[in-house]
Every structure is written in C-alpha cells, then in structure tokens.
Amino acid sequence: MKTINWKNAIIAGIIGTILFDIIGLLFTGKWWDIPEILGAKTGLGLAYGVIGHYSNGILLSILYAGIAPSLWGPKWVRAIVFVVGETIALVWLFMLPLLGAGVAGLDMDPMMPVITMVRHLVYAIPLIFMIGLEIPIAKPTKA
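and the corresponding structure tokens:
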C-alpha cells in the first residue's frame, strides 16, 4: 500500500503553481492574474487571492498524489491525464463559467482554452518528477 509523501506533494504543488504563474505572465503580461481575480471576486483582496491560489495548487497536488497509483500508464502520462481532466472539469466547466467567462472561457477570449490547458500542463511538471519518487527498499532474504 502506497502512502502520500506529504512533503513532496506540498512542494510539487507550490512549484507547479509558480510555473503556472510564470506561464500566465508570459501569456497575459500580468503576474498573479488568477489571485487578483480571486481577491476581487471575493472582495477579500490580493493577499487572500494569493493564499487561495497557492492553497489550491497544493490541494490539487495532494489529490494527485493520492490517486496517482490508481491511474494508468507511466508517471508522466498519469500526471497529464490528471491535469487535463482537472482542467476540463474544474476550470472549463466550473470556474470559468462561474466567473462569467463562459464554458472554457470562450466568452472572454477564444484562446482561453489553450492558455488554461498550457498553464495546467506546465503545472504537471513537478508532479511528474516529485510524486511517487519513493523507491522500495528490498528486505534481505533469509537463507
């Protein structure tokens, strides 16, 4: 039975969210665009938006660490399947319509589905390298 390596999951979530934000900066020219939207929509400001954004990145990484052993394929496929499914279900069909941007953000920008998917695929990089790194130690056999 595999257990979650909490330290790796948390660090992977933070690094993934930083990479997500860097790609966002390259696409939009704005740093912390998502935290800004979260803070504005809740009325709680940028600090809340940053905490919420990074907490979400950590939570998704922990969730991935918990279900990764149940997914099929090599580690890199598992991480990509997870982020593609998460992007479609939670971002395209839930968050963006909730924010008034329409399904997949198409009411905001026709490139929004591409931008959100690329950002989440980059988020998957530390998941690929940091989740499931535990190497089982062989126990000596009795002669």
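(Above: one complete record from the training split.) The first helix runs from residue 6 to 28.
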